[in-house]
């Protein structure tokens, strides 16, 4: 169970001032941070390795490359992951795959010959998502701006004899028409009147610019006109077994999809995942 504590601070600025408060933070050894997971869904699976930062460092945590990153199970299967970016490792799409009931361990060997291993973790059954539904709501921001959203809810259930500790994820996918044939180049020098924009269709658009007619000529089907963008809820949603009965989770709040132009220019698909 995960508990969240919120602290609300109200600052009254009439006739007041704000003084900087400096305090010393003792230095400590920078720790290795590993973020990754394996499931019974098809791979590839990704593991990201970073190092902790000092509290007053506002930069993104630095990624860490390793000599070897390996996932292995309790029946003799293993796979060494490939580094696709600095500090980001991935299995092969046809490589190791999680199996319910098996136990998995992650092993990292760094270039300074240190070895880190995770605690063995068993993949438990993830239960069933029974239904997903929504409520259309009006919301008002802290600045008093009104907006609308689809609040997403879910009903699910766990295993009768399982521990039923779940992580839930919400992902929205929507279509975007990019119109790459309309790409232009603006060329303007300082203090000069603006010239007309130069037509410069992207190569993947299927159009080429014809300077004789000043028109776009169609030459082949477009390869990049339709894109699929994602809306990912960054908040973790975890089960609370203190308020559940018989492994049934009802009206779990999964977050909201804002009613903005692009997500609803055509339609949005919502996917909910339940992970043990």
Lay out the secondary structure.
Blueprint lengths: L31 E5 L9 E6 L16 E6 L4 E3 L1 E4 L2 E3 L12 E7 L5 E3 L3 E2 L5 E13 L5 E12 L9 E11 L6 E2 L12 E2 L7 E4 L4 E4 L7 E7 L4 E2 L9 E11 L9 E8 L1
Antiparallel strand pairs: 1-2, 2-6, 3-4, 3-7, 5-6, 7-8, 7-9, 10-11, 11-19, 12-17, 12-18, 12-20, 13-14, 15-16
Any key phrases for this structure?
disordered N terminus, four-stranded antiparallel β-sheet, 276 residues, 42% strand, 20 strands, five-stranded antiparallel β-sheet, mainly beta
Written description of the protein model:
- There is one protein chain.
- The protein has 276 residues and is mainly β.
- Helices cover 0% and strands 42% of the residues.
- The chain is built from no helices and 20 strands.
- The protein has strands spanning 32-36, 46-51, 68-73, 78-80, 82-85, 88-90, 103-109, 115-117, 121-122, 128-140, 146-157, 167-177, 184-185, 198-199, 207-210, 215-218, 226-232, 237-238, 248-258, 268-275.
- Strands 3, 4, 7, 8 and 9 form a 5-stranded antiparallel beta sheet that branches. A 4-stranded antiparallel beta sheet has the order 1-2-6-5, with no helix packed on it.
- A hairpin with a 4-residue loop joins strand 3 (68-73) and strand 4.
- Residues 1-16 have low confidence and may be disordered.
- Could you tell me how far the N terminus lies from the C terminus, measured between alpha carbons in angstroms? 13 Å
Q: What's the Cα radius of gyration? A: 26 Å
Residues in β-strands, percent? 35-45%
Specify the overall morphology: extended
Largest sheet: 5 strands, antiparallel
The number of strands is 20
SSE pattern, N- to C-terminal: EEEEEEEEEEEEEEEEEEEE
Low-confidence stretches at least 5 residues in length (pLDDT < 50)? 1-16
Structural class based on helices, strands and sheet pairing: mainly beta
Helical content stands at: under 10%
The number of helical runs is 0
The pLDDT mean sits at: 84
């Amino acid at each position: 169970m995960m508990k969240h504590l919120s602290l609300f601070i109200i600052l009254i600025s009439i006739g007041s001032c704000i003084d900087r408060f400096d305090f010393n933070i003792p230095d400590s050894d920078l720790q290795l941070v590993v973020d990754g997971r394996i499931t019974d869904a098809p791979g590839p699976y990704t593991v990201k390795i970073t190092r902790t930062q000092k509290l007053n460092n506002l930069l993104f945590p630095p990624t860490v490359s390793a000599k070897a990153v390996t996932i292995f199970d309790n029946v003799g299967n293993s796979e060494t992951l490939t580094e696709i970016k600095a500090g980001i490792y991935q299995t092969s799409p046809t490589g190791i795959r999680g199996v319910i009931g098996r136990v998995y361990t992650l092993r990292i060997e760094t270039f300074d010959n240190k070895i880190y291993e995770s605690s063995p973790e068993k993949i438990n059954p993830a239960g069933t998502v029974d239904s997903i539904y929504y409520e259309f709501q009006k919301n008002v921001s802290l600045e008093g701006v009104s907006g609308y959203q689809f609040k997403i809810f879910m009903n699910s259930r766990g295993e009768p004899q399982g521990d039923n500790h779940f992580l839930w994820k919400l992902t929205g996918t929507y279509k975007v028409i990019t119109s790459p044939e309309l790409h232009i180049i603006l060329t303007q020098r300082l203090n000069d009147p603006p010239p007309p924009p130069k037509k410069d269709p992207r190569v993947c658009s299927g159009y080429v610019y014809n300077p004789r007619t000043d028109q776009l000529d169609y030459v082949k089907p477009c390869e990049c006109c339709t894109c699929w963008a994602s809306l990912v809820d960054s908040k973790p949603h975890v089960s609370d077994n203190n308020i559940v009965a018989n492994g049934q989770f009802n009206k779990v709040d999964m977050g909201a999809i804002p009613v903005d132009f692009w997500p609803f220019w055509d339609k949005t698909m919502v996917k909910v995942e339940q992970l043990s």
